Automatic annotation (TrEMBL):
ATP binds at residues 221-227. It is an enzyme of class 6 (ligase). Residues 194-383 form the GMPS ATP-PPase domain. It catalyses: XMP + L-glutamine + ATP + H2O = GMP + L-glutamate + AMP + diphosphate + 2 H(+). This is GMP synthase [glutamine-hydrolyzing]. Catalyzes the synthesis of GMP from XMP. Pathway: Purine metabolism; GMP biosynthesis; GMP from XMP (L-Gln route): step 1/1. Heterodimer composed of a glutamine amidotransferase subunit (A) and a GMP-binding subunit (B). It comes from Candidatus Daviesbacteria bacterium GW2011_GWF2_38_6.
Length: 504
């Protein structure tokens, strides 16, 4: 158990959350009750606070707390207070410091347990007016910043540590590492894997409670969200979950096969792969308008899905909605009555399914973390976003089997060549433009493929990736050599806005 002595910092609660996330019990105490109640703790943390240690009513603790032999970590005001009480000196800083700073580890600082597994230089978050100018006897300085001489101090013998920055805020790099190092100093064993496992087990048991012995269905697309959601539910209710994958024929190269491999063969999930290629192609025949394409695809999807869903006799529908998808809609309960939703194109009300969204409280990186804990392969966890209507919105003009084949081949080359480049998305577009070329002294009139490679932090704005010419040249050469129908490749160099990421 860790005790946090609260000196009024805005982030005291955040410290407790971080400690709890590391699987350790924690209690927040007022300074007056600290000495009495801390006796049975494994470690004590002094929080930050808005006061100056020399102010008239500045909060303080009984000095005897340092004699308990329990490791202490002082953060910001907590560090200043411990220095003042132990004979050091604190003064108003040359200027107040709020925001980022860089800590440089001094001399043998890397050997100090608090800084274990931390690089010699790391970014931190500061928020203080005063600073320690003289450290107490027995202490050494192990880290400084450009403005602060004593950013990390320690009396290793007595296991008393002080840091001027805030390890609990996410802007501090290695903050979690510093806190877990402190817990280790306190003799607490942290088993991160065990904690992660428990976290996922709790999600699975919540799903079990929601669904009980009823049946559920889900639309599996192979994207990271629906994959993680389906796998969680499978772990909760096993064969009572029917996953439906509609192969629209608008998927990328090898996608259906890899999905089969992972979910049917490896996880032994109850997955129905419905071959609906002909239905989709037939419905899209002669259609060139992007919005019409989307509507038709949504409609056919629902028809195909609904048929199979009825056979499954399910009461619940699982959906991989994540927090950013629901940010604007109220409500936080796991289950709610079905409403239209974009992933499955808006299922009709009369299906009367109860919606279960196990990921609705999580961000994308957390979903990926859950996927990793569930041992989903990287090819799924790190998959780029792919639009619901698939390659249909990457073919300008009519979607035909021929065009799809050409696009799929060109796209697989783009994927192969850019697999190690960190991008939001990269893909090929079938532009529908024919141009003149020459191949082996003969005139050809062939297709034009565009390459779109995007750097973005969210779906709202983006820039094209500044890929090296050599790489673009290699992709272009491979496409015109390996896809005989194509004799020209262009690179899309527009930002979003005004262009969207997808061409349609
Ligand atoms: P745009 O083209 O609007 O794309 O700049 C932004 C992001 O959304 C993806 N996208 C879709 N995703 N259904 C989806 O599930 C769709 O109809 C759809 N259209 C675009 C796109 O790939 C990009 O990541």
């Amino acid at each position: 158990m860790i005790i946090i002595v609260d000196f009024g910092s805005q982030t005291t609660h955040l410290i407790s959350r971080r400690i709890r996330e590391l699987g350790v019990e924690v209690e927040i105490l007022n300074p007056e009750e600290a000495l009495i109640k801390a006796r049975n703790a494994d470690g004590i943390i002094f929080s930050g606070g808005p006061a100056s240690v020399y102010a008239k009513d500045a909060p303080t603790v009984d000095k005897k707390i340092f004699n308990l032999g329990i490791p202490i970590l002082g953060i910001c005001y907590g560090q200043q207070l411990m220095c003042q009480l132990l004979g050091g000196e604190v003064k108003p800083g040359f200027k107040k410091e709020y925001g980022p700073a860089i800590v440089r580890v001094q001399g043998t600082g890397y050997r100090v347990q608090l800084l274990e597994n931390i690089p010699k230089q790391f970014n931190v978050w500061m928020s203080h007016g005063d600073e320690v100018v003289k450290i107490p006897q027995g202490f050494k300085t192990y880290g400084t910043t450009q403005t602060i001489p004593h950013a990390v101090i320690a009396d290793e013998k007595r296991k008393i540590y002080g840091i001027q920055f805030h390890p609990e805020v996410i802007h501090t790099e290695f903050g979690e590492q510093i806190l877990s190092n402190f817990l280790k100093i306190c003799g607490i064993k942290i088993n991160k894997q065990e904690i992660d496992k428990k976290f996922v087990e709790n999600i699975i048991s919540d799903i079990k409670d929601s669904i009980g012995n009823e049946k559920a269905i889900c639309a599996l697309s192979g994207g990271v969200d629906s994959s993680v959601a389906a796998l969680l539910v499978h772990k909760a209710i096993g064969k009572n979950l029917t996953s439906i994958y509609v192969d629209s024929g608008l998927m990328r190269e090898g996608e259906t096969k890899s999905l089969q491999e992972v979910f049917q063969n490896h996880y032994k999930m109850n997955v129905f792969i419905i071959d609906a290629k002909q239905e989709f192609l037939k419905a899209l025949k002669g259609i060139t308008d992007p919005e019409q394409k989307r509507k038709i695809i949504g409609r056919v999807f629902v028809e195909v899905f609904e048929k199979k869903a009825k056979e499954a006799g399910a009461k619940f529908l699982i959906q991989g909605t994540i927090y950013p998808d629901v940010i604007e809609s109220a409500g936080s309960k796991l289950s709610q009555k079905i409403k239209s939703h974009h992933n499955v194109g808006g299922l009709p009300e009369n299906m009367k399914l109860v919606l279960v969204e196990p990921l609705r409280n999580f961000y994308k990186d957390e979903v990926r973390k859950i996927g990793k804990i569930l041992e989903l392969p990287d090819e799924i966890i790190l998959r780029q976003p792919f639009p619901g209507p698939g390659l249909a919105v990457r073919i300008i003009g009519e979607v035909t089997n021929e065009n799809l084949k050409i696009l799929r081949k060109a796209d697989s080359i783009v994927q192969e060549e850019l697999k190690d480049v960190d991008l939001w998305q990269a893909f090929a577009v079938f532009t529908g433009i024919k141009t003149t070329g020459v191949r082996g002294d003969e005139r050809v009139y062939g297709e034009t493929i565009a390459i779109r490679a995007i750097e973005a932090k969210d779906a709202m704005s983006a820039n094209f990736a500044h890929l090296p010419y050599e790489l673009l040249e290699k992709i272009s050469t491979r496409i015109v050599n390996e896809v005989p129908e194509v004799n020209r490749v262009v690179y899309d160099i527009t930002t979003k806005p005004p262009a969207t990421m997808e061409w349609e």
